[in-house]
Design a protein that fits this description.
The protein is mainly α. The chain is 77% helix and 0% strand.
Length: 295
């Protein structure tokens, strides 16, 4: 597979890998399972860095239309659902399992294109069926099956699919990808901060055993910074390549992350589990092919 923009693409893969591993370390190894606080911190760091970059003239953000900002708020609600449910799921599931279920969000997008827009090709339907089969069979074959983990992964999947469908339906007007992300950050910080006390995370976190440890502080700082740079590189890569090229880099980043994760985090698998992961990988590879060729 020939990939353009190797420097930008490789940087994106590196930040994807580092961000995923850092989040997994905080959530599963340190077991900081307070998503309103963890995701609130990440979006706060991302929002502040994006705001500073804007004020310094490093990026361009235009938020001049209140009506467009309000029209984007439903997507921001879905964004909060994506990161909250994703955090819950990743804390319980190995990275390859989480990514396999995450990829099945394309089922929602493809279903919308097929039944509403009447645009989906037979090859794309075939690729999505592979993704769906992998996501459905994986919990049945997973030797580390965690019901709550897969439930949160399902909610994450639904939010990701709904977010993509909303993005297809929404008329972007003057809001760029960075404008949308800026709104997502601000809305997420406000909502997650407001929910931290009712959810019980605010005071429960005071009993966290590593609260005053350097490795926890450094990991949280790294997660915020890496998440911001991943977003920035994703936006830059998406704007400088075709949708097919971006999909290819995204696929490569996931393959590298899923392949290396068992070397750093506990994961047990049998032949059936690995088969599901391979089927999911084949499905996404076919999806990338359809994006690149337009078939």
């Amino acid at each position: 597979m020939y990939l353009k923009r190797p420097a930008g693409g490789l940087a994106f893969c590196l930040f994807y890998l580092a961000s995923s591993f850092t989040n997994k370390y905080v959530l599963s190894v340190l077991q900081f399972t307070y998503p309103t606080l963890f995701q609130g911190w990440q979006t706060l760091v991302g929002g502040l860095l994006l705001h500073i970059s804007w004020k310094l003239g490093w990026v361009e953000i235009n938020l001049c239309s209140r009506s467009e900002i309000l029209s984007w708020l439903p997507a921001s609600v879905l964004f909060v659902g994506i990161i909250y449910a994703g955090s819950r799921a990743l804390s319980r599931l190995p990275i390859p399992m989480f990514l396999t279920v995450h990829n099945a969000a394309e089922v929602i997008t493809c279903g919308f294109q097929k039944f509403v827009q009447k645009e989906t090709s037979h090859l794309k339907v075939c690729s999505v069926l592979f993704l769906l089969a992998a996501a459905v069979c994986l919990p049945l074959c997973d030797t580390q099956f965690d019901a709550n983990g897969y439930l949160w992964a399902l909610i994450h999947l639904i939010c990701v699919g709904a977010y993509k469908v909303f993005h297809k339906l929404w008329k972007p007007g003057s809001l760029s990808d960075l404008d949308q992300q800026y709104i997502n950050y601000v809305f997420s910080v406000v909502l997650l901060a407001s929910a931290s006390h009712p959810a019980g995370d605010l005071f429960s976190a005071l009993d966290f055993p590593f609260l005053y440890f350097y490795r926890f502080h450094s990991s949280c700082c790294a997660s915020g910074l890496l998440g911001f740079f991943l977003m920035l590189h994703a936006v830059k890569l998406k704007s400088s390549t075709t949708s097919g090229q971006y999909a290819a880099w995204n696929f490569l980043a996931k393959v590298i992350t899923a392949s290396l994760s068992p070397l750093f985090f506990v994961m047990t698998a049998n032949v059936l589990t690995i088969s599901c992961l391979v089927i999911g990988g084949v499905g996404e590879a076919l999806l990338v092919y359809t994006e690149r060729t337009g078939t």
